[in-house]
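>> Question from a student workshop board

For tomorrow's exercise we were told to take the sequence and the ligand below, predict the bound structure, and bring the output to class. My setup keeps failing. Could a helper post the expected result so I can at least see what it should look like? The ligand is magnesium ion.
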Amino acid sequence: MCKLGVMGGTFDPIHYGHLVAAEGAREELALDKVIFIPAGKPPHKPGHDLADAGDRYLMTGLAIDSNIFFEVSSIEIDRPGPSYTVDTIQFIMNQYPGAEIYFITGADAILEIITWKNVERLLSLCYFVAASRPGYRLDELWEKVGAFIQCPEKKILGMEVPALAISSTDIRRRVREGKTIKYLLPEPVEEYIAKKKLYRR
Ligand code: ATP
Ligand code: MG
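>> Workshop helper replied:
Here is what the output should look like for this input. Compare the format with yours to find the bug.
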């Protein structure tokens, strides 16, 4: 049976935190591959202006190029309007009939997800993998998860990964302030950001 990892995010930009979580899940769960799915441009994302979908897609491709188990998909970018994770998972299931799907997230994102409206439906389609992330304790996570949904332990798996206090928000801020982003993300992505002058303001 095919075991597939799926990792969604804005990837604005992709960094080693994403890659370590995906590779950790691949190894621990013996996944056949991990598909990275950059989100399309939501009409109103509060907080910051997202880099173009094309740039985020290309940076994701550059970042995963050296891992034969990693792939990038443009399904959310190609679809107009915001994408719902449940639709994305359904799409992947149609592409890979019979595959077992593991949706890989950070511990912060899983908390958001369990409060979504159709989380029961989502949990009926796939497993969730919550990777540890600095500032989010996995044991506290279970209490919060338990308050929202029943019997989640079978479908939501916690995973300890080497903690990396790296975030896209911090990388964007560093670029804006003219600070170094070296060793926070793969070199080809760093070069792409410099060449395209992304995140300068
Ligand atoms: P932003 O600061 O813009 O929110 P981000 O660094 O959180 O960016 P996202 O694209 O929002 O990155 O995250 C995509 C997925 O990767 C989410 O599930 C998130 O929890 C996870 N993730 C991001 N950074 C890390 C990290 N350092 N360790 C573990 N998981 C992470
Ligand atoms: Mg985030």
